[in-house]
Write a structure and sequence with these properties.
Oligomer: single chain
Radius of gyration: 21 Å
CATH class of the largest domain: Mainly Alpha
Largest sheet: none
Structural class: mainly alpha
Order of helices and strands: HHHHHHHHHHHHHHHH
Length: 413
Amino acid sequence: MTRALRSYRRVLRHRAYRTLWSAAVISRAGDTVNFVALPLFVYAITRSPAAVSGLVISEIVGAIGGATVANPIVDRLPPRAVLIVADVVRCIAAASLAAAPTAAFAYAVAFILAAATGLFSPTSAALVPRLVPDDELTAANALQWTAGVVLQLVLAPLSGLLVAVATARVPFALNALSFLVSALILLRLPRRPALAAPSHARSRPFASLGLLWHAQLMRPLLLMQALAALAVGATSALLVVLARQGYGLSPTGYGLWLAAIGAGALAGPVLVTALARVAARTVVSMAYAVRGAGDVLLSVLPSGATAAAVLALYGVNTSSGMVSFQRLVQEGVDPELRGRAFALLDGVWQSGRLASIAAGGVAASAFGVRPLYAVGGALLVVAALVGAAGLPRSHVAAALQAGSAAEASGGRE
């Protein structure tokens, strides 16, 4: 714990990173408030679970659209400008919903917010390695993740309270304010040029996709991401169904499950920071394997209390895996392609989630929710095996060499 805190203090000494981190934390606070308030608002108006599901679908489709737009442009534009524009768009959308809160408008705003976030997130993730030394990347990623988890634990109950005692306009307005403040903070971010010049072969959208596919690191990562999305999309969405139907828990018991996940998620970044010398590929593969084993256990365990312990491990595992996954891409993909790599991975993740949620609801209705977790766990174990077998040990050199070879081949054509 002490080592992790020291590493956090070191990384916050970098003014540019501190600016990016502060803006991200403030906008993440607004995201958390909105995440709780928006479905509560839609359900209060419609009294329809299907309407709430439609909201989730709008967000996922928006995220896919944002990742699609980000892929050809994210590395061709100055990152500071991209981040500020994304925040301004999100601010206007959230403020519009606060001014005119209707269920139909909520779907449009959910789509816009997710699409703009799909542009903001890969840009931010690709920028971090330009702001901190290589040996502080793990701490930088872990600090961002930890801040997000703390905000979720603190602000999620507050958002629900605001909706209950005031009006949904208040959290929507706070969300808009968070994006405005984030954009103002980002004005202090040092200007960084785009990494891919418009005339460069790597800047062309289809050329960049080809380069990413030929990079030895990206092929297994894309397959792992697709398998994980197919597994986790349905199991995450139906966790409440598992709690109520599979384990017979009360709403309070389900809340304790969520608290266990949150507590584990706080510990994960500290653990991965303390184990920074462990290869990221090893941590990522183990994270998939442990999550898969956990899903299989959830399909057969008889006790809700025992399942809560598994879910706490979920939190540790998910957060440590995410931090290492981000580091793997940051270190192993050519800087000129890094933003597009994150956008492509985001697009695969959201597309897989959408397919998983659609198929998972049907499967759970037909066969029950517990078998769904067994299938999801098996998919995650397969993803772990793909990572163990396919992720290159010297991923930095392999990614760069493969990208250069593919570029040379394309140039000859």
